[in-house]
């Protein structure tokens, strides 16, 4: 966590809290939203309106961290296990709670139940998931669990069989989301998208989580900018550019546009 991150303000992947509220539900909604999305961080010790670093009393920091961890583990279903660390910003101590994207979606507040306790992140805000989004999260969670449980590395299938299966998945999703807005969010799985991760694996020594996050983002939204990479990965400009260049060199992405108007798409 750096001063630059603080100055950039809250985003889809970053939220500030001046202090740890007595009612954990106040920030627990955001925890759930991050797990249902692309992950994110909650920073305690930063005033959310002014982005002023106020800090946490250092002598109380570790007990506060333990309390946050316990509250998150006890309040969410399925269980969410956070990564809670200390950081120093402007010579003050802040607590950073890192929530990774979940694979058992939807995540929700146990006390409110699935229908009323499921939240998602929209820009820099946390909002309740409506019935259509809830179905989409259930669909994503079911597919991820199926992939993990029934993966068959030695199975042999043809390209036509894969394409047919992907088309059936798209048709199923389109039939079960009844609004035009929901259907528009569904993107057909193309051969190009299926091979994107394989390209990185073959072209780089070690495929990283950062590579995977960027590829997933581009698959879902069509393109990504340097600024979006910085927000997605919570990294500096130079680091974001380096990772993008790695994906370009690997033949996964290609750059379009010039200077500030440039963006990256699947190749």
Automatic annotation (TrEMBL):
Domain (Schlafen AlbA-2): residue spans on this chain: 10-129
Cross-referenced SUPFAM superfamilies: Winged helix' DNA-binding domain
> One Pfam family this chain carries?
SLFN_AlbA_2
Gene3D superfamilies, per the entry: Schlafen, AAA domain, Winged helix-like DNA-binding domain superfamily/Winged helix DNA-binding domain
The record's annotation in InterPro entries points to: Schlafen_AlbA_2_dom, Schlafen_AlbA_2_dom_sf, WH-like_DNA-bd_sf, WH_DNA-bd_sf
Q: Which domain of life is it from?
A: Bacteria
What PANTHER family does the record point to?
GLPR-RELATED TRANSCRIPTIONAL REPRESSOR, SCHLAFEN ALBA-2 DOMAIN-CONTAINING PROTEIN
Protein name per UniProt? Schlafen AlbA-2 domain-containing protein
Organism field: Eubacterium plexicaudatum ASF492
**Lineage of producing organism:** Bacteria, Bacillati, Bacillota, Clostridia, Eubacteriales
């Amino acid at each position: 966590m750096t001063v630059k991150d603080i100055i950039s303000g809250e985003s889809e992947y970053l939220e500030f809290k001046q202090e740890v509220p007595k009612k954990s539900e106040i920030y627990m909604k955001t925890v759930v939203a991050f797990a249902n999305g692309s992950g994110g961080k909650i920073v305690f010790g930063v005033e959310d309106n002014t982005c002023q670093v106020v800090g946490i009393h250092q002598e109380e920091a570790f007990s506060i961290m333990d309390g946050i961890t316990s509250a998150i583990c006890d309040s969410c279903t399925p269980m969410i296990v956070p990564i809670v660390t200390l950081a120093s910003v402007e010579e003050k101590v802040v607590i950073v709670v890192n929530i990774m994207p979940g694979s058992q979606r939807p995540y929700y507040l146990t006390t409110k139940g699935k229908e009323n306790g499921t939240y998602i992140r929209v820009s820099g805000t946390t909002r309740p998931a409506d019935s259509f989004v809830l179905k989409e999260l259930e669909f994503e969670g079911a597919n991820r669990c199926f992939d993990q449980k029934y993966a068959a590395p030695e199975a042999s299938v043809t390209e036509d069989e894969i394409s047919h299966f992907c088309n059936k998945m798209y048709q199923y999703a389109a039939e079960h989301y009844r609004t035009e807005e929901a259907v528009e969010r569904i993107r057909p799985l193309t051969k190009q998208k299926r091979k994107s991760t394989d390209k990185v694996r073959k072209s780089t020594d070690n495929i990283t989580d950062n590579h995977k996050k960027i590829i997933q983002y581009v698959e879902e939204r069509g393109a990504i900018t340097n600024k979006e990479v910085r927000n997605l990965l919570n990294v500096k400009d130079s680091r974001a550019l380096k990772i993008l260049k790695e994906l370009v060199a690997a033949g996964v992405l290609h750059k379009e546009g010039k200077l500030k108007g440039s963006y990256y798409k699947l190749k």
